[in-house]
Amino acid sequence: MGAKIKGAGTDIIEIEGVKKLKDVSYNIMSDRIETGTFLCMAAMTGGNITVKGINSNHITPVIHKLEETGCKFNIQKNEIQMQAPKRLKAVDIKTMPYPGFPTDMQSIFATALTTAKGSSMIVENLFENRYKYTQELIRMGAKITVEGKTAVIKGVRKLYGANVKATDLRGGAALVMAGMVAKGNTKIENIEYILRGYDKFDQKLKALGVDIRIV
Predict the structure, then answer these.
(1) pLDDT at 129
(2) Is position 15 within any domain?
(3) Residue 77 is part of which domain span?
(4) What phi and psi, each to the nearest 5 degrees, are found at residue 99?
(5) CATH number, residue 111
(6) Distance CA 53, CA 193 (A)
């Protein structure tokens, strides 16, 4: 566009003003966390899913961890196809800055592991107090122990519907995912957290066969 900017990739960005910027055509990159969310939802429900318009290189760590749980992938240029097993295997995860495992996928993936076979351990290396959602999952029957930046998840066969509250964006989406597999009805409050991060979330889930509605 004609801007004068230096310092990309460093701690200091220097911008020198110009009189005018030019028009450009630009395609906004796909949302890697939304992609990871839908992949984990399909994984937890033992289904298969095709996600289009995504660069798989942006979520390589998530794909690798899903492969460890037993999911099978067919990756095309701008498309990811995934087939999940009947029950996931437990895995261990450590969140890291990009290109490591994204912290925004921590609660999503942890929820998928609540019904996995075996015990999983998650280490949150980037943010404090990012395990608030676990108390809500425990109310649904999950077995999770949190100590400091580490969460240990012992997989259970079944989660149960409950009235729960979203404490943040990703944790809220994680509760939606738990409700998808829980026995009975799940009611989630504070959904404004969720809706600010996922466009037409309920409509997309309905298209996948989820019985969900916003009240």
Answers:
(1) 87
(2) no
(3) 29-198
(4) -95, 25
(5) 3.65.10.10
(6) 25
